[in-house]
Each structure stands twice: as structure tokens, then as C-alpha cells.
Amino acid sequence: AQSVTQLDSQVPVFEEAPVELRCNYSSSVSVYLFWYVQYPNQGLQLLLKYLSGSTLVKGINGFEAEFNKSQTSFHLRKPSVHISDTAEYFCAVSGPASGGSYIPTFGRGTSLIVHP
Amino acid sequence: DVKVTQSSRYLVKRTGEKVFLECVQDMDHENMFWYRQDPGLGLRLIYFSYDVKMKEKGDIPEGYSVSREKKERFSLILESASTNQTSMYLCASSTIRGTGKETQYFGPGTRLLVL
């Protein structure tokens, strides 16, 4: 079985400050990792994903994430946030599930609140 | 661009009513999913489907059923709505079954209030 823990339910930050949103996963097999963003009153959209290769993954809107297998983490970072980054961020993991299907498991979400 | 549309953005229903939530995707995706989203609980999978007329239970199927008569359409049915089904419902689709690498494409969501 796989699971995802997003360590912070809410992260307040000032505009132009750096931010890190933390995500840890547990799985007994190799996994694929995703970050999705949900802007107010919208559905989720993909920010970035790690499938294989370089452990540093770059996504849209200046975000990046680093896959750390030894620490089973996939933290999301941005060096300088904007007001428009205020949103809910979801970490997700996919891998073998029962019956051989690959269904993603989502974390509970982190609300990023950017203050002027 | 992939487009996933949901029939309603907001719905208000009474306890005991039968409720239909419709989802349509326009990219010929094989996989479709229904989630509910609640504050502090994230996304929880209700049902998913890999093909027409095929469905599989997710983590919280109780009180729900689904229908997939056409590849592009996946319907969620609340047989007898209850107040604890008040939630945001998100539909998603993806292609290529079974690799785990798929990106999910989400609709804008339906916010359902059951009174």
C-alpha cells in the first residue's frame, strides 16, 4: 500500500519570500510522484511530476521539486512567491496497487497563502 | 488542450433525492475518476472506470454508484442523498491504463449541498 503525508496543512508566507511545501510518501515499491495545484474555484492541474532520471524536477510557474529516495520525500520549492501562487497544493504518488492497477493516492493538501 | 467538463458548478438538493453528476472529457481518455474533496481530508477516490461499462470501487464507494455508457462520459449517482454527502466533487480523466505515469486532468468541480 502507498500513502502520502503533507506535513503542513497551511503555509503563510510574504510575497517574494522563498517557500517549501513538504511531502513524504511511503511505498514498498518504486513510485511516481506528482504535485498538483488547485487555484480558488478551479479543478486541479499538474504542476510537475517525477517519473525517473534527474531527481530535480522543474515545473510550471517557477516551481521545482526534488525526489529524495532515501528520505522518501518530494518537497516542492519556489525561490520567490507571488500573490498569484495562493492556492491549494496536493502531492500524489502512484505505483502498484491491488489488482495490478496504478491509481494515484493524494495527500491532504497544503494551503499556500501569500501575503503582500 | 484536454477539457473535462462537469454539468454543474453548484447544486442544492434535499435529503433523499436522487442526484446525478455528469462528467464529459473530449480527449478520448480511457480512464475516468470521481473524487470527493473535503477540507483537511484532501481527495478521496469514490469510483473509477477503465473502459465503457466498466467500473471499480475506490476508497469510499458507499452511497454512490456510477455509469459509463460512452467512453467520454462518466456519471456519478447519489441514490438517496444525505447531508454527509455535502462536498466538492471532482471528475478526472487520464490516458494509458496501468503505468502509473499518467497525468490526471480535472474538471472544475461540482459543489453539492444537501439540505
Task: Give the gist of this structure.
By secondary structure, chain A is mostly beta strands. In chain A, 0% of the residues lie in helices and 52% in strands. Chain A binds chain B through residues 6, 9, 31-32, 34, 36, 41-46, 49, 51, 90, 94-96, 100-104, 106-109, and chain B through 4, 35, 40-43, 45, 48, 50, 56, 58, 90, 92, 97-104, 106-109.
Overview features:
heterodimer, A: 116 residues, 6-stranded mixed sheet, 4-stranded antiparallel sheet, 12 strands, 0% helix, 52% strand, B: 115 residues, mainly beta
Strand content of chain B: over 45%
Taking the sheet with the most strands of chain A, its summary is: 6 strands, mixed
Average pLDDT over all residues of chain B? 93
Mean pLDDT of chain A: 91
Mind explaining what this structure looks like?
The complex is a heterodimer of chains A (116) and B (115). Chain A is built from no helices and twelve strands. By secondary structure, chain A is an all-beta fold. In chain A, the strands form three sheets. In chain A, strands 2, 5, 6, 10, 11 and 12 form a six-stranded mixed β-sheet that branches. In chain A, strand 5 (32-38) and strand 6 (44-50) form a beta hairpin. Chain A is globular. Chain A starts with a strand and ends with a strand. The mean pLDDT of chain A is 91. Chain B is mainly β and 115 residues long. Chain B contains no helices and eleven strands. In chain B, the strands form two sheets. In chain B, strands 2, 4, 5, 6, 9, 10 and 11 form a seven-stranded mixed β-sheet that branches. A four-stranded antiparallel β-sheet of chain B has the order 1-3-8-7, with no helix packed on it. In chain B, a hairpin with a 3-residue loop joins strand 4 (31-38) and strand 5 (42-49). Chain B is globular and about 40 Å long. The termini of chain B are far apart. The mean pLDDT of chain B is 93. Chains A and B meet through strand 5 and strand 6 of A and strand 5 of B.
